User: Fold these one by one.
Assistant:
Number 1:
Amino acid sequence: MDLRQLRYFVAVAREQNFSRAADKLHIAQPPLSRQIQQLEEELGVNLLDRSKRPLTLTEAGRFLYQQATRTLVNIDHIKEQTQRIGRSQRERFVIGCVGSTLYGGIPDLVRRMRAQWPELDIEISEMMSTEQVTALKDGRIDVGFGRVRFNDREVERLTLREERLVVALPKGHAKSLPKDPIALIELQDEPLIVYPSTPRPSFADEILNLLGELDVVPASVEEVREIQAALGMVAAGMGLCIIPAASQRQRPDDVCYRMIADENATSPIIMSYRRADANGRIKQVKQLISEMYAANPPWLQLSNIRLPSSH
Amino acid sequence: MDLRQLRYFVAVAREQNFSRAADKLHIAQPPLSRQIQQLEEELGVNLLDRSKRPLTLTEAGRFLYQQATRTLVNIDHIKEQTQRIGRSQRERFVIGCVGSTLYGGIPDLVRRMRAQWPELDIEISEMMSTEQVTALKDGRIDVGFGRVRFNDREVERLTLREERLVVALPKGHAKSLPKDPIALIELQDEPLIVYPSTPRPSFADEILNLLGELDVVPASVEEVREIQAALGMVAAGMGLCIIPAASQRQRPDDVCYRMIADENATSPIIMSYRRADANGRIKQVKQLISEMYAANPPWLQLSNIRLPSSH
DNA sequence: CGATTTCCATACCGAGGAGGTATAGTAGCG
DNA sequence: CGCTACTATACCTCCTCGGTATGGAAATCG
């Protein structure tokens, strides 16, 4: 698959007509036909219904049209941005973090960093925990904040805190009524939704391991790409979901949350960085983080709620 | 710029070595060098610092590496998804909506649609209001939910409701303390953050027009790409931001919100669809929406809060 | 219903560019 | 300074993209 083929396909889909599309692309019609054919052949899918005029898109074609349009725009943006950065010559510091930390300490940290280093271009890139390791090693990011423990010789990691987990339940679910902590064993035979579906291992595996250790078997396990989708499905009554406490903030009012009673139902926030960088800005970032934790901000209080002692 | 060039560049960036990258790509080294040179030439930017070994990326190269990796993965996903849809042959119904509606009625609507039409594959695609018009016309989406009024012969629109606007202020800001509605005139000489930056016209323009009509001139106007960034900047103390009331849910506890007192400070939710489709599923969707509104769900209450009558 | 128009697919040809090989030039290291 | 490792340059070959000519199917119209 080629960008040219995508551009061509978008043109044909937009015009619903090969000849007009070819005009707009400033090429002749036969080469255009061939490119679309090759694209269809490579995908093994019919993108257009050629049996009547004007041409209509198949469902697959409609999807590809939508995605291709978006991708092409993205690539233009990437091009411009790359040129802009190339011209500006300012130092950049890229933070890779899992989505949940955007509702935790990251904004506060960035604010402190901007104040301390106004000459620095700081960028945030959302990525899964496992992706952060390779992204660190080959320099795409300078620091990572994730949830999955991993070992790598080049990467040093620091557990910032353990965050308690909560169960998200649909409003009206029988088990959503009690407000006290819930035991994981109660999730037996409930439909469970986990995220993210890729890449592995991920937060989804942490949750499944946690349940596995207790021999808790859900009625079903559905994997979705991201937490928004997971909570959406919970709100729609399709199952339960286990999330870090601080992520409740994303959807406070149409989903019920119950703290999990099991002592080990926590998920860490792990900062990771290249061992070689440990003494540069990273050291100062650690300093900023400890100042931040000392200030005991609201998001920290939410994730640190202690269980009522049961003895 | 070509996908091949991106793949090649990613390989070189990952290996920090042309020869090894060429091996992995199963091509010889000289063509690889040439492709990278051409890429750099097209962008007018140095991507690699070749003056020392091992090769290092420039800041621009680092950015492109990060983005290109992501784009290539996306394209693989698009490919797989397209093939999957091509095989399944199920009918799809694609909803295009602005982000704020994901915190409003969309999840509820989707739940009702899924219940009513289990055989239908429903998909949600986030897109700006203006993008929805063209997306509707050329079949990328089947219905749109947006905030900007527009006219188009082929597209019919229906204003579902007018949602009140609120000002988001940093915690600790002088004007964040009163809890009563704030007049827009009070935003005079405050730094303002608006979104989205593209495409125009957008919600950002609606806000700027609203202020312009009242001759309110902010101290500065910064445009950011999306509401998350806008609220993040508000939380970081960099300015104020005007958002629809329901979007408060996204970030309830480290930003303060004040209802806007001006009577016309509202933003509509507009449903739009192809005129030709008005009597198919669209009619039933309208029915579902009116049932939904009749149930007076929590997100509706939030956005419908009436101003205390001032007379 | 048949003639005409419109439009897409097929066949074949020429030019540009991608990749290969050989080799020169340069950084890193002892 | 000389060796090794690695990238850039020069030149060649072949693939493939795009162009032209033409056949065939669908829509249009009298």
Number 2:
Amino acid sequence: MRKPCCDKQDMNKGAWSKQEDQKLIDYIQKHGEGCWRTLPQAAGLLRCGKSCRLRWINYLRPDLKRGNFAEDEEDLIIKLHALLGNRWSLIAGRLPGRTDNEVKNYWNSHLRRKLINMGIDPNNHRISCKNPPLQNAANTLHSSASSGSKENAKKNEPTKPNHDGEKSCDLVSDAASGLEDESHSLPDLNLDLNISMPSPFPCVPKDNQKPILESEARSDPHFFSSPTLVLFQ
DNA sequence: AATATACCCAACCGCACCCAG
DNA sequence: ACTGGGTGCGGTTGGGTATAT
């Protein structure tokens, strides 16, 4: 077992104070993002480097777009999840100003439920036997089940949707493999993800962003097929 | 009004990957 | 080729808030 990334003793944990935030912002503005391990000490923070990195990436970065997800962002997340599975960082990489944590939370709290309400198994994006799709399910994507529909969630779903409890019609565990027959899984959703490189993506990563692994891209025929991401036709 | 329950989100944890030495 | 440190990622947790009873 490897050593913890930092000495846990004498380290602050939990919510960040405004002073801590300011120290981190000031330091990064002066010195940029660098060695996270040494940053806390240099910045005068009693935090471990991982905590600083997370705070910066998920909350303090100036280019973050905070607030509700737009409808097109929701659609994009759903489509990318069908394509990529739980690879939140990859998904977030296609949503400017969004973080993997934010996307993951939004998926778990809103979109999962939305798909379940539509009768779609969120794990593999196929129509679920237990929850047959509502009529015009796809049309409800942005209406009845839209974010905050706690009413619907409570009426139509057990309180804690278990991760594997919902068995889909066919046992396809890999989300990406569900794409083999997309038309069955996502009615009315255009999954024709023609992704390639509008500026940096995918071959040239942004500053701190990993490129898509070639192997990942290779395994997906949609990658590198066109210069634009045509999603909403 | 008080209590219980559900929901949301920030943060933590541990593992995996990458890369320099 | 191997090793260990640094970093990134995904899963999970805990606390605050909203809603229901």
